[in-house]
Amino acid sequence: MKSYKLCSVLILSLLLVVTACSTGNSNNGESGSASAASDNKQGNAKSAKPDDNQSDKKLKIGLTVPTLGNPFFVAMSKGAKEVAAKYNAEVTVVSADQDLAKQTQQFEDFITQKVDLILLSPFDSKGIAAAVQQAKAAGIPVVALDGSAEGGIDSVVMSDNVQAGRLAGEYLAKRLNGKGNLVLIDGPPVSAVIDRIKGFNEVLANYPDIKVIANQNGEGNREKTLTLMENVLQANKQIDAVFCINDEEGVGVKIAQEQAGRSEEFFIVGVDGAPSASDALKEKKSYAATSAQFPNQMAIQGVELAMKVLKGEKVEPQVLIPTELITQDNVDSYKGW
């Protein structure tokens, strides 16, 4: 009997020891799992740091414009810099100085600098095609502003330039009562200018008694236009109206007109809504109207569109911003650039 009791005690003791060991192993397992989970979290946190740093990295945007001598492109560059801050981006703005070779070189510089995207306001829509192709081959998105470009751009944000030409043409034709001698000052070979002339000529086609007595290229430049307008004034005794593809040209015409003492003879219509045009309109003299663009808004929408391209999102190939006719009658309510 004693032997049986002793046996029972020994078996019970052994069971208690096994249970204790088993419980200890279970606790160690839980502790190990918690420790592993903690290590995994730390590991995940560590592996997330490069992504966080990536998001902190400033995006580099290159913007090239035909000339910073035109307030329009100055306003455009300001708009681009303002909206870029929203995306933690920095914008490098360069002027092509109305030189295709220089704008092409600027593209090459942007590629070397490894910018994340390029905003292009082209001086020559066709001539810049090869540079656009180079950027695209380097994996850099290209969004055009104020005029389309060949070579495979991702999109273009610009004014409705056909509308701008029509607004100017309709105002001019109405003021002339459908009859008179017209001087047309053209500009650089970019889509924006081509579209303005297209819209203007569409209207002019309805007025056969409005005669174009001179068609010159002022290259969008005030000084160039001043010089050529002096020659036009010498060659033509009677001018009734002048249409210019931008306000810089329009101001050049106005200066030539004043120097020749012919301010009362004809009126001037431009495009842009530039500060210089606003001032001239407020004088209520020969500067009669301008089809206003909004370069600041153009740049803002351009950057926003480019950010979508960077994210791989689909975008519209063309975004048009409506223009607005500003005259001596409504210039005081025009906010300008």
UniProtKB/TrEMBL annotation:
Gene3D superfamilies linked: 3.40.50.2300
PROSITE patterns: PROKAR_LIPOPROTEIN
Leader peptide range in chain numbering: 1-22
UniProt feature, compositional bias: Low complexity: 26-38
Keywords: Signal
InterPro entries linked: Peripla_BP_I, SBP_2_dom
Stretches for region Disordered: 26-56
Intracellular or extracellular location(s): Cell envelope
Pfam families: Peripla_BP_4
Residue ranges of every copy of the Periplasmic binding protein domain listed in the record: 61-314
Lineage top rank: taxon: Bacteria
Family: Belongs to the bacterial solute-binding protein 2 family.
Protein name: ABC transporter substrate-binding protein
Taxonomic source organism: Paenibacillus aurantiacus
